[in-house]
Design goal:
The chain is 61% helix and 5% strand. The protein is mainly alpha-helical and 462 residues long. The strands form 3 sheets. A two-stranded antiparallel ribbon has the order 1-2. A two-stranded parallel sheet has the order 3-4. A hairpin with a 2-residue loop joins strand 1 and strand 2. It binds arginine.
């Protein structure tokens, strides 16, 4: 087998060059897209009378049997073929003979690889969005039963105000919804066919690029061929989208790790999705969220790496661009398994309502409500109310109580106009439900948010 028959290079390539130059070891991932692209291409060539129907049929039959060979694991991937494009073409030649040599009319590996890779990215974006939709369903099913489960909402990782667990998770539902929409918009924006652009300047054959695009399911044909074979912004988009997604996954993972610690005890990950220590028999480790947090690093790395590969390249194709694929394959695989395992870890975890509730009794979570009471009911300017509340909090601390546990008499010592209704105001559940503004944490508002995501899930399609 040989790479590409060339007039300029006479000597056989050095083995070291083959090893360095070949992309077959990883771009075989694109075999399906490559075969589909070639089938569409020869259909177009035949419909434009550039090749005859009998050659077209033979080529298509040959390509289909190569596809089965690959899928049965019988195809011999040889480094001497350099890449998946040449490997398939060379195999086709050995299968059907001279007709195979007509397949590459009016195209180049430059538009071929741009096509294969773009098709791959569009498909994977869709698969990732679909997996994320399942994750959204899982989150909703947990949220539905926890609109009344109190836990401390935090800022600076310090207890701040009481919220409910559903409300907390709904923040992630919102993030993942945007992630899904980012994949959907990537697909919309990048459904542009590069095939037919050939090496860089188009082709002198009377081709029909619209037909090829239609056969391959693209929405449109690229406008400028030089751009189509040169840019990899579509690949950067999926790397960016995955990076943002992994950042969201990582933040949720960090919370799962914290929440499953003895200090928090808010959740327990299932045995199925936990690991143990090789030396400490009492341990149950949150390896799943830790790895999810860790894998975020490689997603960022892959994005940075391709941005760097592309930044100084003159138009059009340069071999540097062969470095575009491995990072994308890696990020896609990482994101897929990450979404799947996060989904399972969430589905199987148990929520410790008692521990969450107990934690709300620490940190004077209804102190803001006390200040608001002094302002709204007793007419204090907010800054003065804030100051007096600070004094009451200090008193509570000295007496080993939470402000929500103070009695009316104790509160009256600070201002005799304080009435009995303060006791309800300071109750943690009431504090949560008082935050009834749009998008707030009250149970009513939380339920509205759940409805919003349910409706969105029912109507969204990709
Ligand atoms: N293996 C190459 C890549 O992945 C395919 C394109 C090769 N084109 C070329 N002119 N050498 O980028």
């Amino acid at each position: 087998m040989q790479k590409v028959a060339s007039g300029k290079i006479k000597a056989k390539s050095a083995d070291l060059l083959d090893e360095f130059n070949a992309s077959i070891s990883f771009d075989k991932e694109l075999y399906k897209e490559d075969i589909e692209g070639s089938i569409a291409h020869v259909k177009m060539l035949a419909s434009q009378n550039i090749i005859d129907d009998s050659a077209k049929e033979k080529i298509i039959d040959g390509l289909n049997s190569i596809k089965s060979e690959i899928e049965r694991g019988e195809f011999l991937f040889d480094i001497k073929d350099e890449d998946i494009h040449m490997a398939i073409e060379n195999r086709l030649t050995s299968l059907i003979g001279d007709d195979a040599k007509r397949m590459h009319t009016a195209r180049s590996r430059n538009d071929q690889v741009a096509l294969d890779f773009r098709l791959y990215v569009l498909r994977k974006a869709k698969e990732l969005a679909k997996l994320l939709l399942l994750l959204e369903e899982t989150l909703l099913s947990i949220e539905e039963v926890h609109t009344g489960t109190l836990l401390p909402g935090m800022t600076h990782l310090q207890h701040a105000q009481p919220i409910n667990f559903a409300y907390h998770l709904l923040a992630y539902s919102s993030m993942f919804k945007r992630d899904i929409e980012r994949f959907a918009s990537l697909i919309k924006r990048n459904s542009i066919s590069p095939i037919g652009c050939a090496a860089l300047a188009g082709t002198p054959y009377d081709t029909d690029r619209e037909l090829e695009a239609k056969l391959l399911g693209f929405k449109s044909v690229s406008v400028n061929c030089l751009d189509s074979v040169s840019d990899r912004d579509f690949a950067l988009e999926i790397l960016f989208n995955i990076s943002v997604l992994m950042m969201h996954i990582s933040r949720l993972s960090e919370e799962l790790i914290l929440w499953s610690s003895s200090e928090f005890g808010f959740i327990e990950l299932s045995d199925e999705y936990s690991t143990s220590s090789s030396i400490m028999p009492q341990k149950k480790n949150p390896d799943v969220p830790e790895l999810l947090r860790g894998k975020t690093g490689r997603a960022y790395g892959n994005l940075l790496s391709l941005l760097t590969v592309m930044k100084g390249l003159p138009l059009a194709y340069n071999k540097d661009m062969q470095e575009d694929k491995e990072g994308v394959f890696d990020s896609v695989k990482t994101a897929k398994i990450s979404i799947k395992i996060l989904n399972e870890a969430l589905k199987t975890m148990s929520v410790k309502k008692e521990a969450m509730l107990n934690a709300t009794k620490v940190g004077h979570l209804s102190a803001t409500d006390l200040a608001d009471y002094l302002t709204k009911k007793l007419g204090y300017p907010f800054r003065d109310a804030y100051k007096l509340t600070g004094e009451i909090v200090a008193y509570a601390d000295e007496n080993g109580k939470d402000v929500s546990e103070l009695g009316l008499e104790e509160l009256k010592k600070f201002d005799e106009n304080i009435k009995e209704d303060i006791l309800d105001t300071l109750k943690l559940e009431n504090s949560m439900n008082a935050r009834d503004s749009q998008g707030g944490t009250s149970e009513k508002s939380t339920k509205k948010q759940i409805d919003y995501f349910k409706k969105w899930l029912d109507t969204f399609s990709i």
